[in-house]
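Let's study a protein:

___
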Amino acid sequence: MNKNSRQQLTLFVNRNKAQEIERVRRQFNPMQQQLIDSHVTLCREDEIENIHSVLHNLQQLDMPKIAISFGPVTRFENGTGVLLPALGNNEPFHLLRSKVLAGLSTAIRMPAPHITLMHPRNSTCTDELFSIIQTISMPTYLIFDTISLIEQINGGKWQILKNYQLNNNYSL
């Protein structure tokens, strides 16, 4: 049997700080919430295809924890999805990405960091649902101290393969 495998690098939200995020995800997007905990995607699968170089970079990585500030919830994908967008230029996030992807032959993209609350793949936001979500107090600032290499096989639950710790200091 062929296995359809996807790998990504992810910054998981600390469970103590994710209570309201997970409450929204559990209530309005339980399918996605069952597949993966709340997170910010650091690198997508197409960016880490040269996994040996990426793993080498992660093992050599000397970076501080990163802090990300978040704005109000926002709809995306023609209003069907909801996310918690990062604010500002997110320089530490992009610096971390550039160090993880250093030496690869592909151009490094500049994605906007965010936490998906309702994924359009398996939920649909309505005006009524969005007005409810807007009343829930979301974190405005989170610190990430671990990069997780995760894998999804055949559309199942994402599993952590390995964690890479960032330094104890943090970068704004």
